[in-house]
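Table 4 source record.
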Amino acid sequence: MADKEITLQDAKTFSQFYERYLLTVFRYIYGMTGGPRQEVEDLTAETFFRAWNKRFQFRGSEQAAIGWVLTIARNLVFDTHRRKKLHPEIGFEEDWSDLFYSNQPNPEMQIIEQEQFKILWQLLKMLQTEQREIIFLRYVLGWQVKEIAQLTHCNENTVSVNLHRTMKKIQHDWPNNQ
């Protein structure tokens, strides 16, 4: 992520920011909720709508801006599920794997990636929301531990320990490791 200062106040800059980070926010919300697709799309749109309405309150770097927008998304996801008075039930049934893995030119590698993706989603369904969030931030969105700590309001050591424990759990539960 870039450290340059940006302003999101004018429509053109906000539009460029939106285009650049739409998929990041979508992936994050999907990682937190598991779908269905319409809900993820609605929450993504609502996130950017809220950011647009509060854009004059933001000052900072591009890294801070995406952190700010993901905080809006995080709060929106939690508020939505709190209103439903349900623990978020993770679906991950729809096949959106094309949003997450690379486009392998080799058909055999594509099939292997797709199978691994399905196994991963099944394992992610079993994680607590907080564990799933840090795994998504670190390994799907590529965030550093320091950035995750800032977003989740935890210290870096706590994030590192939770990442390590969660990865150990995933590794332990992976089908070939039993």
